[in-house]
TrEMBL record:
Name listed for the protein in its UniProt record: Iron-sulfur assembly protein 1
Core domain residues: 23-121
Domain of life: Eukaryota
Gene giving rise to this polypeptide: ISA1_2
Family: Belongs to the HesB/IscA family.
Organism: Linnemannia gamsii
Pfam family, one: Fe-S_biosyn
Gene3D superfamilies from the UniProt entry: HesB-like domain
PANTHER family: IRON-SULFUR CLUSTER ASSEMBLY 1 HOMOLOG, MITOCHONDRIAL, IRON-SULFUR CLUSTER ASSEMBLY PROTEIN
Amino acid sequence: MSLAAVVRATVVPKVPRARKAVLTLTPSAIVRLRSLTEGPEPKVVRVGIRTKGCSGQQYDLQYTSKKERFDEEVKQDGVTVLVDNKALLSVLGSEMDYVEDKLSAQFVFNNPNVKESCGCGMSFMT
């Protein structure tokens, strides 16, 4: 007994894949970034990563007035944040939050790519 198979070509329309956000901002981060970047001269915050700390990498936030050639621009609710091209793979999918408590006020990154972090929480490894 032999089996026969028929192959039919079907055209499936290409649906663009949803692109994962490089960085999302929480409402408290948006409010804080807006207050930091207001002023007579336009400036934005650039998020980068530098080699430092117990676990190897640390977030680096800098003011800048212009976008570099390969920086990724994140716009959310009227606030613009630049992500340094060298930090893209480490930051991809992260959430940037701003947290205030009795002793400190700081930006906190909830990063799904982190494999290990130090005890103080200042450095990480991806």
